[in-house]
UniProtKB/TrEMBL annotation:
CDD domains per UniProt: S26_SPase_I
Enzyme Commission designation: 3.4.21.89
Name of this protein: Signal peptidase I
Main localization of the protein described in the UniProt heading: membrane
Keyword Nucleotide-binding: no
Amino acid sequence: MVKGTPHPIRVVTSVTSRTLLGSLVGLLLWAQLPVVALGWTAGVVQSGSMRPALMPGDVVLYQPPPRNRTPAVGQIVLAQDPTRPGQLLTHRVYQVLPNNDLITKGDANSTPDSTPIRPTALQGVARLRVPWIGLAVQLWRAEQPVPEAILLLALAILLALATLPVHSRNRHN
């Protein structure tokens, strides 16, 4: 190896860790930009009821619901859950009733939801999915300390590797 050239493993490690960190930062910014700039709502998918379209840990960005317009059948909506007060529900519009109430259904569920959603309970219409970026939030809410600790340790290792200098200093003159 030529004197002063970086070791190939060090270069690969540095480039890989910086690429992963850059991707994570990019995804975080992508998930927050519409919230800050457009007033959209962001939410982390907690269950598998919308698989395969939405996976647990995905962040979904919701545009405020259009005024005087009912979401169309097939659109994914965020609404106050009529069966669990104080909880939110992300499901696909399955049917629009004559009074504009919505029947929703999770893609992975075999039957539609039993309780219609009133138009006033709508919080937003899904516009953007950012995969995996909400896994840490999901683990935190589930109070699972071991996977959460592993995730934090992996992030710390990535940060440490990304800050290592690529060139080693030559101490021999």
